[in-house]
Amino acid sequence: MRFLHYVAGMDISLFKDLERVGETGNFSQAAELSNISQPAFSRRIKALEAWVGADLVDRSRQPVKLTEAGVQMLEAGMQSIARIEQERCQIIEAQSSPDKYIVTFGAQHSIGWRFYPNWLQVFEDAYGPILSRLRADDLPNCMHDLENRAVDFVISYARPSDAKDDGQTITIGQDRLVPVCKPNPDGSPIFRFDNSNMKLPFLRFGDTAPISQHLDPMLERFNLGTRLQAIYENSMAGALRIRARDGSGIAWLPQSLIEPDLARNILVQTGHNDWTVDLEIRLQRNKRHLNQLTRSIWSFLEVRQSLPLLSKN
């Protein structure tokens, strides 16, 4: 873990850099371990030396070696980091009682729109009220936040055939991608697949959007790529939904997102029923970042995940 605490204007993560110099005896190797360039790494060590007011690395030899002052400051710095992190963990644990701790969920945008508030209400009816917040974002950002303790759980889509990470993934709902478009006045879809010679306008998820990974295998299996012409691309289902509602083209959208549109005939399903894609909605955690409350929530969901009550869209 990279520490970014600041004391008296000094970034104490610099002590981790100094530790890597002592371990490797080489600035380039230490910089690689820190995931920064060698010049930037050298500047960080010089900044620490300027703050201390003494040379901390003997650069006159190869491999380089920490000076006596360097050894002394490294020991003091690492003790400080350990103490800060220990106190931080104790504070987080103390704040993890249900009446104080705010549980933070990260979720893909399309999940956060309708599924999440409905699921949260059902969950709280069964578990009890909790303080919570939602951070809707692209999935890679959600996973980064989970790794760095910025969120407690991530809610995302997966195909039922996708392997689960045992102990870190729970299925909490079901959904499916449905091909939809704007209807004609008589309720029929304005874009139909009846004419095999006509390419239909396609509102697609971008290649980097994780949800496209669930859709593309179906499109390939039924050879639908030859029937569709991409005219608009966006990683957010909500943006595709707007374009589908205004009659721009066909989009495969999560049913949980478009249920009100289907009920009011703002959107209608088009194509064959086999062209839908079943999805699971899964909750993920990071075992290394748990407290009393999040452990309790996880244990509750592990027992209850098979119940229809908690699989409601």
Keywords:
single chain, 313 residues, alpha/beta, Arc Repressor Mutant, subunit A, D-Maltodextrin-Binding Protein, domain 2, 3 domains, seven-stranded mixed beta sheet, two-stranded antiparallel sheet, 13 strands, 42% helix, disordered N terminus, disordered C terminus
Would you mind describing this structure in some detail?
- This protein is of the alpha/beta class.
- It has three domains: 6-93, Orthogonal Bundle (Arc Repressor Mutant, subunit A); 102-154 and 283-311, D-Maltodextrin-Binding Protein, domain 2 (3-Layer(aba) Sandwich), CATH 3.40.190; 175-279, D-Maltodextrin-Binding Protein, domain 2.
- The chain is 42% helix and 20% strand.
- The protein is built from ten helices and 13 strands.
- The chain has helices spanning 14-24, 27-33, 38-52, 68-94, 109-127, 139-147, 210-221, 237-245, 255-263, 292-304; strands at 6-7, 10-11, 57-58, 65-66, 102-107, 131-136, 153-158, 169-181, 200-204, 228-233, 251-254, 268-269, 277-284.
- The strands form four sheets. Strands 5, 6, 7, 8, 11, 12 and 13 form a seven-stranded mixed β-sheet that branches. It has a two-stranded antiparallel sheet with strand order 1-2. Strands 3-4 form a two-stranded antiparallel ribbon.
- Strand 5, helix 5 (109-127) and strand 6 form a beta-alpha-beta unit.
- Helix 1 crosses helix 2 (27-33), helix 1 (14-24) crosses helix 4 (68-94) and helix 2 (27-33) crosses helix 3.
- It is elongated.
- The chain starts with 5 loop residues before the first strand and ends in a 9-residue tail after the last helix.
- The model is unreliable at 1-9 and 307-313 (pLDDT under 50).
